[in-house]
Structure formats: structure tokens, C-alpha cells
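USER: For my understanding, would you kindly supply a protein sequence with its C-alpha cells?

ASSISTANT:
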Amino acid sequence: MKQRAPLTLAAVTAALAAATGLAFLTAPAATPAGGAGRAAAARMPVERSVLVCPAPSSSDIAETTYTSLTPGKGGAAGPARLADKDGKAVLDLKEPGKPVAATASGAEAPALTGAAQGALAPGWTAQQTTKVSAGHARGLLGLACTAPGTDFWFPGVSTAKGRQDYVHLTNPDDTVAEVAVKLHGPDGLLKDKPGIADPVYDVAPRSTTKVSLSQLAPDSLLADATAHVTARSGRVGASVHVAEDGTGADWLPASAGPADTLVLPGIPADTTSVRLVAFAPGEDDADLTVKLSGPTGPINPAGRERLHLKGGMTETLDLGDVTRGEAGSLLLAPADPKKAVPVVAALRVVRGTAAKQELAFVPASTPVGERATVADNRADDKATVLTLTASGADAKVRVTASPGTEGGQGAATEITLKGGTTRAVTPPAPTGGKGPYALTVETLSGGPVHAARTLTLPHDGIPMFTVQAFGDDRSTVSVPRAAEDPSILLR
């Protein structure tokens, strides 16, 4: 039997980077000679980031804008490139702090995969925004390209008549990924007929597979359900494309969690309908308090202050026009802190009325953390609204606008938030430039802070909009005792 060579730090780090797609890093300096004890944990910038973007639309009249940015400053670095399955570059970012954009038309726009290296890796972000002016899938569809993973929850999907929901599974790697998709309705897990194995989908390398949720439940019309996506081998990016007859279309990103306390940030002020969809993945029931965080603090929606979730079953709560003219965020917490149960949740949000309605989704999100970025904002009047929520203590954040993709000068401002409140602001915009730009939010003190950006591009009297949450860009990783111990924690 051959003896295995001991693993080096570089080998372990590279293996973890290949497994997660989140980071590849270098070791910090060793403990000085003569120093007692072990080296303290260090924060190191990532050296490699991976993103995937699903095919944006099946409509021949779709118009898609892609944007990409790595925040910060610095000289030439790279590459940071998003390409189609044949390796043709669609977005090629060359310098931190300077966003790039590209456009695509029709239904032929492909799914994209790519990686950023070196100075372009920490905080690399990309966004696709698609406008479809007519048809059953008309609307403004926005989605932040995501890091690949192995486990995703999507409360808010549906197999009802008039809904067309597709899970897009995008594989960034050179090997096939095997992925399972399961649905949980109000009565629990939808099971196949006895003797028939659960379907597993093979996602080819550097490509996307679409899974129709209605085909997973051909005999069930579920107004609201929760989809669970798990990669049994490999890894994928996963997002749900939703088209609803008469109400519009958008992407449903995965919910944060499962967690016992959730924040769903960025409900627009003029919302006409809000529906909460929540799910407790385990066997235990969950009792939640439901509060709306507004400019003066959290309030209890009259008659809708509590939600009971049966373990393994999807539940809904109709909140109506809960914001009543003031933007807000929904706060979910255990009714009894001693009986906290992890849950996932998302909101279906509608603006407009009658034939001029438009929908979007607001899933539970993670806090901004040290820094978070959303690309593709527009400087048009009231096109971009930033919603900031201090769910606990008072907090202070810095909001920075990058230059536009066609030049200009960036801008920044600092905003103080009172604990428990939500503020909707017109964010800073670059001066002297044109084209989409990125917004970066940094937590300076206090917190946690949750944030979301609403982009509105009206069309023919329809308030077409999409909401994207800010999540910690995880541009650094913690490396404990790196000089002595190859066990590296990637946070």
C-alpha cells in the first residue's frame, strides 16, 4: 500500500476552491519566530470567483442587458469573463471599479458561465435585466447571476392554471451535474406514483436545463408551493422563471435560510398586493410573528400578525396592500424564542391594477455584511429606489455608485438607520456618464442591515419592475492557523 503524501495548504485550498467555486486564496504570513501560540485567523481576499446566469427569455421580442462589476479600485487585472457554452465571451471585465455592459435580443440569448481571477475576484457581480413588452411573459425580469451550489429553496412557485414556472439549472463545470427537484405543497411533499423513481435531471457541462414544475405535478394545481433543488453530484446555479397570465413575469431567486428569523427586504411603496409564502423544511411546526418594518419602526399587520407552519407543508398569508404608501420590509421571527424552527420564505408582490399589473418576487435575503453590490441601476428619474432595513440595532452604511458603463464619475453617500426601521431612498448616481451603473452598500457600524434595489422601467402604462436584494459579496475568507493547519474555513 502506498503512503499518501501530506496535504499542503495550497493543495487543500485548491481542492476547496474547486468544490465550492467561492475562493482560491494565498496563505497569510506565518507566526513570527519565537511567538507563542498559534497564528490568529486572518481575512484574505478571494482569488477566484465563479458565477452562472440562466438563459434570460424564450420570447422573440426580449431585450436583455448584462452588466458586470468588481467594486474597488486597481489597475489591470483579470480575467473576469462570462461566456456561452462554446466559450464565446459576452461580458469581459478588465478593471475593478469600472463596470461593463452588453446587450442581447430575442430568445437566442444563451446561459452564461464564467470566473474572475486575481484582483477582479473579490466581490465580482453580474446582473441580467430583460424587458419583454408584450405576450404572456411580458414584464421586466431581473436576476443577479449566482454562485453555483448544491442546495436551493424556492417558496412561491406554482403549478396553477395560468402560471408557467420553470427551474433553470446552470452547470458551470466540465462534468455532468445530477440534480433532483421536489415540490412541497400545502399537504406536504408531492410524491410520484408507487414504483416510479423520483426524477433526476442530468445537466450537461456549461449548459442549462429547464424543468417545468407543472410537469412534476401533472395532477395537482397548486396555487403556492415550495421547490427544493439539490445537486446529487456536481453543482449548479438555480433560479425559477415565472410567467403569470395577465400579471407579468420575473425571476424568483432562492430564499435565504433555512433560518428561524428572516428579513424580506424591498416591498415597494405602491404595492397593491403582497402574498407571503413560507415553508418549514423539517418535521417540527413553526409559529411565526409577522411584522412590517417601515420608516417609523415595525408594525403588526392587523389580523395578520401570526403564521403557523406545519412541518413539511407550504403555507401562505395574504397581506393585501400592507405597505399603504410607504416602502417596507417584512420581518419573520419565532413567536416563542425557545421554540425556534428554521423556515424559508418569499413574497409575491404586485404593482398596478387590472390589465396594468406587474409582479415581482422578494425572497428572504442575507444581510449586507461588510459589503454587497447590485449591478444594472439606471439614472432615469425614479427608476432606481434603494431600500435599507436595520432589523436590529442602529446602523450606518455607505452607498457608492460606480461610474456608468459609458464613463462618468462615481459618487457616494452615508446613511444612518434607526434600529427596527426601513428607509427608501434615491441612491447616488454617477455624474457625467451614461449607461447602467452598480450600487455598493457597506456596513460602517451597527447592524445587521438588509438592502434591496427596485428597478422600474414603465411601459405602456404598466409599472414594470424587478427587485434584487443585496447579499454579502464574501470577497474575503477566514484562514485560521494557516501556517500550521490545512483546515481552511471558507465563510
